[in-house]
Structures are given as C-alpha cells and as structure tokens.
Write a structure and sequence with these properties.
304 residues, alpha/beta, 4-stranded parallel β-sheet, two-stranded parallel sheet, 16 helices, 6 strands, 48% helix, binds iron/sulfur cluster
C-alpha cells in the first residue's frame, strides 16, 4: 500500500484526533486545512488535482505537530509533499513551486543571494579534513553567513573544531521536495552527495530540517557516516571540555523556542538547553515546549 493510500485510510476512520494541533487550520479556522482535510483531499483528488486542491496541499509547514498527536504517527507532510508533486505533474502547481525549480536549475538553490560568494567570505575553519564538516546551508548563507562564523568560533573554543564542507555543498535541496519536485531533489542530492567523496562523512547542520532531509531523503551516505545538528555536536564538545572558569554566565534570562524540525524531526531537546545553561543565568520555557513546541510558520513553503 502506498503512503498516500495508507495515510488516507488512517485519517478516514479517525475522529480527527490531531485537529487541534495544526498551526495552519488554527490560524485560518478552515476545516479543509486540518491534517484530516488535507490528507482526505489528496486522496480524493487522485492524479488530477484542481488548482484549489494545490492551494490546500500548500497549507502545511511540515511542522510534524499532527504526527505527535497521531496514534499511527501518520506522516502528513510527506503525504502533502507527494500531493504537491501530483499537482506539478498535472499542471496545476502553485507558481511558487515552479519558481523554486527554475531557481535550482539556474543557480543550484532557490535564494536571491549569490550563496557561493557569501561562502567564500567565510574562513573554511580549522577542523581536520577527515573530521566533522559544517554544511553551510542556503538559509545561513542567505543571511550573510554570520551564524556559520559563530558556529565555527564556538566549536574552536570548545576544542572540537569544524571545517566548512566543500563549496559545492551549499544547499541540501529540501525546497525541491517541498515544491513537489522529488525527482529534481534526488538529482540535486545525488550530485552534492557525490562531491562529498566516497569515504564516510561527519556532517553538522545549522538548520535541523536540512539534517533530517539528508538523513532521511538523500541517497544513503557511505556506511559509518554521521549526520547531526550543530547543537548536538557542540553540547557533546561542551560536556567534554566545559566552559573556562573566566567565562561566567551572562546575567540575562532567555527563553528557548524549540524548532519543530529539531525537537520533533530530530528528537533533540536537551542539547540546546545544555548549551544555553552554560552561557546565561536563566533559561525559561515557553508554554508549548519540547516536542509540543509551536510552529513559527516559516517552513514548508507555506504561502505568505
Ligand atoms: S493524521 Fe492521524 S490523528 Fe490526524 S486525522 Fe489522520 S489519523 Fe487522525
Ligand atoms: S505537519 Fe504541521 S502544518 Fe502540516 S498538517 Fe501537520 S500540524 Fe499542520
């Protein structure tokens, strides 16, 4: 049974147990945009979705909160990304999805910024060639690369230096999946993976969604490879090295908002708290926290 048919059957007989959990239906008050509504529509639309169905498929940030409350762990985002691919094949995609594919064709990513030029402004780091590599990622590069510089500096301070991944590893390609182009995603992933070499690699990511895409959706990396989020990598280094005594915590209080893809996608909730606890005097929790975290709404190519 394929993913969509199984997901649809699970939803069909379900009294919408995850209905309250979806940030999109919560914000729009639309039953059609509940996880149940979107999966049911994907099943009903079959291979020829109308443009209005494509708009419904777009109403998912990929936050995985519905999966958290689904007794069957139904993977609704995966179903909806597949439904978006059906829209692309049927000629009824959202213009934004076509735009993503065209940008990847021209530049190898979907950003407006020259990511390679930004990448070249960052010192490659001082890790060993065979050690952990920081995958730059299009989001951090689009913002000027400051987060990458900071991650390299913190890793160095903790005695676990990172090297930037090769220049060709700018973007994992996740947006192609989100835009309904799974074949193009596989082509992109295969090319970037090939440029990382044939030996096992240790890849560290700033964006948890990218780490999960590489872990779960890329062609398999060589046996012995490791993929993890930067907080996981740095917290492990912190546990080994500790913080120098001359660096007392900053006298501030911060609240940590768990990103969906980190807490639910990668099941990582302790590492960021361990890092913050070493840096500031107080770490507070929002009302929705850990695996129940709220979605910020920025992902999944949700229309703005
Ligand atoms: S995703 Fe799970 S909880 Fe939500 S409607 Fe479908 S079967 Fe029910
Ligand atoms: S993954 Fe998040 S946005 Fe998508 S249907 Fe589930 S709860 Fe809604």
């Amino acid at each position: 049974m394929n993913d969509l048919r199984r997901a649809a059957e699970l939803c069909e007989f379900c009294p919408k147990m995850c209905r309250f959990s979806c940030p999109v239906s919560e914000a729009t008050f639309r039953e059609a945009l509940s996880p149940w509504g979107k999966v049911s529509l994907a099943a009903l639309a079959g291979g020829s979705p109308e443009p209005s169905a494509s708009e419904a498929f777009a109403g998912c940030t990929g936050c995985l909160r519905c999966q958290q409350y689904c007794a069957h762990a139904n993977d609704v985002p995966r179903v909806l990304y597949a439904a978006r691919a059906t829209s692309v094949r049927a000629g009824t995609p959202l213009p934004a999805w076509t735009d993503v594919a065209e940008r990847f064709r021209v530049a190898g990513h979907a950003k407006d910024v020259d990511l390679l030029a930004v990448r070249r402004t960052i010192s490659a780091g001082d890790g060993q060639p065979a050690g952990a590599m920081l995958f730059a990622g299009c989001d951090a590069l689009e913002r000027g690369g400051e987060l990458l510089r900071a991650a390299l500096a913190v890793a160095r301070e903790l005695g676990a230096p990172l090297a930037l991944a090769p220049e060709t590893a700018l973007c994992c390609g996740l947006e192609l999946l989100e835009a309904g182009h799974p074949e193009r995603f596989t082509e992109h992933a295969t090319r970037v993976r090939g440029e990382l070499g044939a030996a096992p690699v240790h890849l560290v990511f700033l964006t948890p969604g990218c780490a999960r895409a590489v872990r779960e959706r890329w062609p398999a990396l060589p046996s012995g490879s490791r993929i993890e989020h930067v907080t996981t990598y740095l917290a492990r280094a912190l546990a080994t090295a500790g913080i120098a005594a001359e660096r007392p915590p900053l006298p501030i209080s911060v609240a940590w908002h768990d990103p969906c893809e980190l807490s639910r996608g990668l099941a990582e909730t302790t590492a960021p708290r361990a890092l913050l606890a070493a840096c500031v005097e107080e770490v507070r929790e929002p009302i929705r926290t850990g695996v129940d975290t709220s979605c910020c709404g920025a992902a999944g190519l949700l229309p703005r």
